Amino acid sequence: MSAASDRVPAREVVRLAAPALPVLAAEPLYLLVDTAVVGRLGAVALAGLAVAGVVFAQVTSQLNFLSYGTTSRAARLHGAGRHGDAVGEGVQATWLALGVGVLVLGVGQLVAHPVAQALGDGGAIADAATSWLRVALCGAPMVLVTLAGNGWMRGVQDTRRPLRYVLAGNGLSALLCPVLVHGAGGWAGLGVVGSALANVCGQTVGAMLFLVALVRAARAGAVSLRPAPAVLRAQLTLGRDLLARSLAFQACFLSAAAVATRFGAATAAAHQIVLQMWFFQALVLDAVAIAAQSLVGAALGSPERGAQRARALAGQVTRYGLVLGVGFGVLFAALSGVLPPVFTPDPAVLAAVPVAWWFFTAMQPIGGVVFALDGVLLGAGDAAFLRTSTLAAAVLGFLPLTWASLAFDWGLAGIWTGLAVMMVIRLVAVGVRARSDRWIVIGAVRS
Prior knowledge:
The chain is mostly helical. The protein has one domain. The protein is 82% helix and 0% strand. The protein contains 16 helices and no strands. It starts with 9 loop residues before the first helix and ends in a 12-residue tail after the last helix. Belongs to the multi antimicrobial extrusion (MATE) (TC 2.A.66.1) family. This is MATE family efflux transporter. Keywords: Membrane, Transmembrane, Transmembrane helix. It is found in: Membrane. InterPro entries: DinF-like (IPR044644), MATE_fam (IPR002528).
């Protein structure tokens, strides 16, 4: 058992987690606003947003190594007292973000229509999804720059400025979305395309704020702003495992969207509502994980009792995640009849929501522990294990049950049973790993 001196004061965890909480919640909260605004256009528009939104979110989120990988590497350097090198990780991650973002934009424009046709089963839903996706892809480079900015700032334990930057961008999007979608005065608005345009405007503002902060920090620390091939290669090595992990999530949620769409617009729209709630709570629970990434990385970067501190942190954040998960479960159970009508007045959609809602509610405590321990292992740079365990959970849990629900007409119950089984497998995997010492590697950079 760790000595009492190795425990991190709760206020230190709160100091990092509290600003990270609204940062993590801002994007899914905006998507909930977006869902409510577009939902007023009808089930077809909302189903189109469901298809396109999942595609865009998965394309960008699978590149989250720009954030999580950068946090891990920057935190170790920060813990070793090498602040300039930690900022340098942010510089190189930003170069990667810009390069990959331009690639995503170009390739995305080419495949937007066929992907929307495949997932939306053709027709009006696919047309709405294509229109939204073509505009939203213009914001991809900005989203990736923001991921990189969050990554290096979390690594140096600065979570306050990212809060201001992200809220500025998402606040602008939230203000523009109703106007661009539904119009104002004598203008009829742009419909579902207005939602995508509002996204791009907000993402651009947020990315510019992160870029300005990075340039200032680099100049203050005499850090080069040029690409450094050796650091880029090291980041890509870590990113390879995190990318494979993200691809597993992408396969799962794209499959779920495709299957839900084939049960009709009402089922697809209901799935979109509950799935956005899932993304919202998952990232909110990740606030504790963000603190764990930064603190565990810094502890392992220091040779002085780093292992003991990391073990103590793992136990702490597990307890915090469980408490938060139970709290969310109680909250969403109490709001089961209140929240869904906020997103749509369509009776058919509302009738389909409860099937998924109770799965979503019951999984909250499991999610709280899983996301917390994900943060510990990500902070330790244990990406290879997270890759393998997530792939196993997807192949053994989510994917077979999701596609079986289409074959056997299980509907949303089958899709959400798949997600539940996936979460249980992940819980067992990260729990066993955290109890071992195989994730503990001391040093400024994990080999």
